[in-house]
Amino acid sequence: MGLLSLAIWLPVVFGVLLLAVGRDQNAGTVRLIALVGAIISFAVTVPLVTGFNNGTAAMQFVEQTAWIPRFNMQYHLGVDGLSLWFVPLTAFITVIVVIAAWEVVTDRVAQYMGAFLMLSGLMIGVFCAMDGLLFYVFFEATLIPMYIIIGVWGGPRRVYAAFKFFLYTLLGSLLMLVALVYLYFKSGGSFDIQAWHKLPLSLHAQALLFFAFFAAFSVKVPMWPVHTWLPDAHVEAPTGGSVVLAAIMLKLGAYGFLRFSLPIAPDAAHEYAPFMIALSLIAVVYIGLVALVQQDMKKLVAYSSIAHMGFVTFGFFIFNELGVSGAVVQMVSHGFVSGAMFLCIGVLYDRVHSREIAAYGGVANTMPVFAAFAMLFAMANCGLPGTAGFVGEWMVILGAVQSNFWLAFIAATALVSGAAYTLWMVKRVYFGPVANHHVAELKDLNAREFGMLALLAVAVLWMGLYPKPFTDVMNVSVAELLKHVALSKLPS
Question: Global pTM?
Answer without folding.
Answer: 0.89
